[in-house]
Design a protein that fits this description.
The complex is a heterodimer.
Chain A (H helix, E strand, L loop, with lengths): L1 H28 L4 H5 L7 H10 L6 H13 L12 H36 L4 H15 L2 H15 L14 H30 L2 H9 L3 H30 L2 H6 L5 H11 L2 H29 L7
Helix pairs in contact in A: 1-13, 5-6, 5-8, 5-10, 6-8, 7-8, 8-10, 10-13, 12-13
Chain B lengths: L40 E6 L13 H10 L4 E3 L6 E3 L2 E5 L5 E6 L13 H12 L17 H4 L16 E5 L2 E5 L7 H4 L11 H4 L1 H6 L7 E3 L8 E6 L13 E6 L3 H9 L5 E2 L7 H8 L3 E13 L10 H9 L3 H9 L4 E2 L24 H10 L7 E6 L3 H18 L4 E6 L1 H9 L7 E5 L6 H9 L10 H11 L4 H18 L2 E13 L3 E2 L15 E2 L1
Parallel strand pairs in B: 1-10, 14-15
Antiparallel strand pairs in B: 2-3, 4-5, 5-7, 6-7, 8-9, 9-10, 11-17, 12-16, 12-17, 13-17, 18-19
The chains are: A mainly alpha, B alpha+beta.
């Protein structure tokens, strides 16, 4: 398993180089002069323009720019934004917010999703099952911004239960509502996935055997059936953790959480290469690590899967 | 999401006077206790600024903060915009070209350093020095020596770091020599780009940008928390004309104005400076006197490429202008929030005449059609230019296109939607092949700021009128506003008669505040007078 992990981590290096270059090239290819765009309607003196171009290496060809970026990276310098903020500081702030949001959403969809799935699976065809089915269909059908604004207006504004926006109250208070909104789609998915696989596994031979051996129903369900049913759920939850980190642009916007999603969105508009590359590369690393963790978890859940 | 950096609007956002009335109840603002800010402080919704070094920002969001931290030499009178001394004791000139600035004695920065003539001269030199790349560089272009600090493209680096036009006379006096007579000069000094800087700004510029130290009534309370908040507290050592009445201000930073509005309704923020037009009907219903709209200095125009011979006839341009129903567009696209204009100047500029444009800006489809026929009609496809910076641009351009189609019978209309970062270079390169959206944000409330920069030498329309230029020159060297105004108006009349660019509407800025606040008197010149506001 150690060797397997090491090999997977080594594979991450070319992936890292490839993505950074690709993203850098994409930002480079965006039209327009970012410095001039920043100045808005006002004229910029040629010497000021030249000074800013030099500061952000904007006059260099793509390969040279990328080389300078990598050289900085080796020294631990991620570059600067157009407003003179260090990208490393900026990303540290932003990643803290996004990570708190993603973890909240993820725990929410894991706990509530699996619980709902199990309940529905065990009471197949009953009212509870139908209610879960209907509820999750609704959540999947409604776009996230509708869920977001509705939750904000009802829970935050009308009932005053949770803060409407911002990070003032800290974790978890400020993150509960956006976390639930962000996790709602995944929750619906996890619940349905759990239910379906559970129902399928409850019909399988080994469950009948266990029952014939005289094993209690609780033990059969929790230790044997559920464990087997969780493999697709774990896969989904793993991939989804990455997606939660990356796909929070809308939720972050509605709830005014200064996270990575918002930053990438703004920086693409401003053509801020170093920020876009830094943020997305970190995201790629998160995906790689989560996928590795998921693969390792398979082995724990299903002894037939071995990594060596 | 709109533009992250909005250019200078220090004369912009704001509203007519009067105190906040307690008469109106209802929900919205201050509903849920005092979670908004600590004792005696109040909170203001803000968008993330770009910089907090006064010489290096043109963002209105930075300026809203800096207006509390710095005292500029002059400020503008809330009623008519005339310059009122603030950090200066006097700004005088005999020839409108060499100006003498005397400072009010006894001022200190918030770190105890004395404010001297040097504090201003150093700050101005830093902004004017091209290689620093500061955002307000261009505001110093009319000071002597600017060219030496800003060599043309590819030229050698400047050999000096100081404007030759600035001269320190003594501790509290300095002189400014301009490249030409310029009577609105004292007015321009109200802009935060001309604020003084202490030594600390040069020893550690990076630190200064997140923790500016100024000479104003409020000092920074801790560093700027990017994307979250900026906190100001009353500066006890302030000896100027506008001491803070409240204990402090918390700027809460929002990425979206819609979210700021929701938070305002939940009572989590006390003051919102730019209520989005979409929320206006609701705001009017809920807030009564705690919602105010005033004209800003920001205008939208429809420019014509006069250098293109299809647009060379003034009658054709007039026909276009008269075929546009400005009121209908404003109602449909902006919820009636903006004001249709028949003047090249914004309503808060001295010398503004409500109906300067006359018939040419009145909606009259029949006359428009007649004028177009006299001009020989319009041939070929009509291309309309705008940028993709905000979705409302396309909405109003579509409305205008429909009116031109209906009223002038031009049926081949195409849109040229250009990326925001390329739009202005396309216009200054005269690449536009048809009428285009032109937006102007006022720098200072002078007719010169509109007429010279948009219709003067090197304008985007390719329009040239020597009589217009001569009038501007005479107005700029006239001794004082009263002498200059009629000359600016004559120049405006020429630009309106030829109409190379037609006025469309003026942006109105709406502010809303909670029941906790007293003394909020938004005016059309300084969007937020932080020192005036108190908490109940």
């Amino acid at each position: 398993m150690g060797r397997y992990t090491a090999r997977r981590l080594l594979q991450a290096v070319p992936v890292f180089l490839g993505t950074t270059f690709l993203i850098y090239a994409l930002v480079f290819a965006l039209p327009g002069d970012p410095v001039r765009a920043l100045a808005g309607d006002k004229p910029v003196s040629p010497s000021a323009l030249a000074a800013l171009h030099a500061r952000y290496h904007l006059d260099d060809p793509l390969v040279v720019q990328y080389g300078k970026y990598l050289a900085g990276l080796v020294r631990g310098d991620l570059g600067e934004t157009f407003t003179g903020q260090r990208v490393s500081d900026l990303l540290a702030d932003r990643w803290t917010v996004t990570a708190q949001l993603a973890v909240t959403a993820w725990v929410f969809e894991l706990v509530l999703g699996v619980t709902l799935g199990v309940i529905a699976g065990l009471r197949r065809g009953k009212a509870v099952d139908t209610a879960v089915l209907a509820g999750t269909t609704l959540v999947i059908a409604v776009p996230v911004f509708v869920v977001g604004y509705t939750a904000q207006l009802l829970v935050g504004l009308e009932w005053g239960l949770l803060p409407t926006a911002g990070t003032e109250e800290g974790w978890p208070t400020s993150y509960l509502l956006p976390g639930m909104v962000l996790g709602s789609f995944g929750l619906a998915y996890v619940a349905r996935l759990t239910r379906t696989t559970l129902v399928e596994n409850l019909r399988s031979d080994y469950v009948r055997t266990a029952a014939a051996k005289g094993l209690g129903r609780t033990r059969t369900v929790v230790v044997h059936t559920l464990r087997n049913s969780l493999i697709p759920v774990v896969t989904y939850l793993g991939v989804d953790f990455g997606a939660l980190m990356a796909g929070a642009v809308v939720t972050e916007g509605i709830f005014n959480l200064p996270g990575v999603g918002q930053q990438v969105f703004q920086s693409i508009q401003l053509k801020e290469g170093p920020v876009v590359v830094g943020a997305t590369t970190a995201l790629v690393l998160v995906f790689l690590l989560v996928n590795l963790a998921v693969d390792l978890l398979y082995g724990v859940l299903d002894p037939r899967i071995r990594h060596d | 999401m709109t533009r992250l950096v909005r250019p200078a609007r220090w004369g912009a956002a704001a509203l007519a006077a009067l105190l906040a009335s307690t008469a109106c109840g209802g929900t919205g603002g201050g509903g849920r206790g005092d979670s908004a800010a600590p004792d005696g402080s109040y909170s203001v919704a803000l968008t993330e600024p770009d910089h907090l070094t006064p010489g290096n920002t043109t963002s209105s969001y930075s300026i809203d903060v800096l207006n509390g931290v710095f005292d500029t030499l002059v400020t503008l009178d809330p009623a008519d915009g005339h310059p009122v001394m603030q950090a200066a004791q006097s700004v005088t000139s005999t020839d409108q070209r060499t100006w003498t600035v005397r400072l009010r004695p006894g001022q200190t920065f918030q770190n105890g350093e004395k404010v001297t003539a040097r504090s201003f001269v150093d700050a101005w030199n830093a902004a004017a020095y091209g290689p620093n790349g500061w955002a307000n560089n261009y505001y110093f272009a009319n000071v002597e020596g600017y060219k030496e600090l800003n060599p043309e493209d590819g030229g050698p680096a400047p050999r000096t770091k100081a404007l030759s036009g600035l001269r320190v006379v003594d501790d509290l006096t300095f002189t400014v020599r301009l490249t030409a007579p310029f009577s609105p000069f004292p007015m321009t000094l109200a802009y935060t780009g001309f604020a003084p800087l202490p030594r600390a700004a040069f020893t550690d510029p990076r630190r200064f940008d997140v923790h500016p130290i100024g000479n104003g009534p409020f000092a920074m309370d801790g560093d700027w928390q990017h994307n979250q908040r900026i906190t100001l507290k009353k500066y006890a050592g302030y000896r100027g004309p506008r001491p803070a009445k409240g204990a402090g201000v918390v700027f809460r930073i929002y990425a979206s104005k819609d979210t700021a509005w929701t938070d305002f309704q939940a009572g989590r923020v006390d003051l919102v400076l730019n209520v989005p037009p979409a929320h206006l009907p609701q705001a009017r219903r809920l807030l009564g006197d705690r919602l105010r709209g005033t004209p800003s200095g920001t205008m939208d125009y429809l420019g014509f490429p006069v250098y293109d011979k299809r647009f060379a006839d003034p009658r054709l341009r007039k026909a276009f202008s008269m075929a546009i129903d400005r009121r209908a567009v404003v109602d449909a696209v902006f919820n009636g929030a903006y004001q249709p204009m028949a003047s090249l100047l914004a309503p808060n500029v001295p010398g503004y005449r409500k109906d300067a444009c006359g018939e040419a800006c009145t909606y009259d489809p029949a006359k428009a059609k007649q004028l177009l026929a006299q001009a020989g009609g319009f041939h070929g496809p009509l291309e309309l230019w705008f940028s993709n910076a905000d979705s409302s641009y396309e909405q109003w351009m579509t409305a205008v296109a429909n009116q031109l189609r209906q009223n002038l019978g031009i049926d081949r209309v195409a849109f040229r939607k250009v990326p925001a970062s390329d739009y202005l270079s396309a216009l200054s390169g005269r690449k536009e092949t048809g009428p285009y959206r032109n937006n102007w944000v006022m720098d200072y409330p002078s007719a010169q700021d509109y007429l010279e920069y948009m219709w003067g030498d090197g304008n985007r329309m390719g329009w040239h009128n020597q009589r217009f230029l001569d009038l501007l020159k005479r107005a700029n060297s006239a001794p004082g506003l009263d002498a200059a105004t009629p000359l600016y108006q004559q120049a405006e009349d020429i630009a309106l008669a030829e109409l190379p660019m037609a006025p469309l509407w003026n942006w109105t800025d709406y502010s809303a505040w909670s029941e906790r606040l007293r003394g909020v008197r938004p005016d059309p010149y300084v969007s937020l007078r932080l020192d005036q506001i108190t908490v109940k």
